[in-house]
């Protein structure tokens, strides 16, 4: 069965994200895995390599596993309030040593994992801009990542907004979104920000071609479209999140483009702090091959460290 993996550091925000993921898993009829990565404090470097004691490692791993079991117990207690015939997601736990951003593609290697879920460090998208940790994960993982704002609770999934640049690779994202939308027959709105300098003719051609591709390749009747005209990207996205009602906002992470343009703008912090929507970030498949090379290099380094402590 497909699985949603929840990345947790045992904070209140992370637990809120886990509860959101639990209800989403019930909605999609999938299981969930609670995942924690822990770091072992390094001892003094010796000969250019870092060593730590197995006692520290075992204590930290045991603490991580115990915290995961306690979190799982609280989620199972929440499931116990559901009707007898309701679908109840299975809950499993996993703990590993190492920086989280180096572990996420190992998680993604499991074909049953469909989605990663994590909480923000503050409301809305502010933590995406302020926190390198979260940006590292979004920038390196080959799975979609759902970022759940503080105090956001899953109630239903009736409308998704996908901020798209109408590129061909986004057709795959639209197809994936239909799988999220089907259980509740949710609307999918494709939103395109027509930035200053973009002509009406070029926009019309781009949109017409994209919508024709969707009608030919994707069989889902509740896909709609709207344009935000004549504004910079960040203002267009801000307008969408403030004026168009939705249950989840969807974007694609492209290196040196689109989402990264938003993340790298320091003057968007105020805007981001006011956004309080779950943000689903899909990776750009064109970037995955490049990331795999990095993963191989990181794997080699981790094997050296593993040999040092074994």
UniProtKB/TrEMBL annotation:
InterPro entries: Universal_stress_UspA, UspA
Pfam families the UniProt entry points to: Usp
Span of domain UspA: 1-149, 158-283
PANTHER family the record matches: STRESS RESPONSE PROTEIN NHAX, UNIVERSAL STRESS PROTEIN UP12
Family affiliation: Belongs to the universal stress protein A family.
The protein's name: Nucleotide-binding universal stress UspA family protein
Organism: Pedobacter cryoconitis
């Amino acid at each position: 069965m497909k699985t949603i993996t929840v990345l947790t550091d045992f904070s209140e925000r992370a637990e809120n994200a886990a509860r959101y993921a639990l209800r989403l898993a019930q909605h999609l009829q999938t299981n969930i895995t609670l995942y924690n990565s822990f770091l072992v404090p390094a001892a003094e470097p010796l000969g250019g390599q870092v060593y730590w004691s197995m006692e520290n490692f075992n204590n930290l791993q045991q603490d991580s596993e115990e915290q995961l079991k306690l979190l799982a117990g609280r989620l199972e207690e929440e499931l116990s309030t559901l009707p007898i015939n309701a679908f109840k997601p299975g809950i499993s736990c996993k703990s590993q040593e190492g920086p989280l951003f180096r572990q996420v593609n190992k998680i993604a290697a499991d074909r049953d994992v469909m989605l990663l879920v994590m909480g923000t460090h503050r409301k809305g998208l502010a933590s995406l801009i302020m926190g390198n940790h979260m940006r590292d994960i979004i920038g390196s993982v080959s799975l979609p990542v759902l970022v759940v704002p503080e105090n956001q609770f899953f109630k239903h999934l009736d409308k998704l907004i996908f901020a798209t640049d109408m590129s061909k690779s986004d057709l795959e994202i639209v197809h994936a979104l239909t799988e999220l939308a089907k259980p509740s027959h949710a609307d999918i709105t494709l939103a395109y920000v027509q930035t200053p300098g973009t002509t009406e003719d070029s926009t019309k051609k781009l949109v017409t071609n994209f919508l024709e591709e969707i009608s030919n390749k994707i069989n889902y009747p509740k896909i709609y479209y709207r344009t935000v005209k004549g504004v910079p990207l960040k203002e267009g996205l801000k307008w969408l999140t403030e004026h168009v009602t939705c249950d989840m906002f969807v974007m694609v992470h492209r290196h040196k483009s689109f989402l990264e343009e938003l993340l790298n703008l320091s003057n968007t912090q105020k805007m981001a702090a006011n956004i309080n929507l779950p943000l689903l970030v899909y990776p750009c498949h064109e970037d995955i091959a490049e990331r795999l090379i990095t993963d191989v290099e990181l794997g080699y380094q981790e094997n050296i460290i593993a040999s040092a402590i074994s």
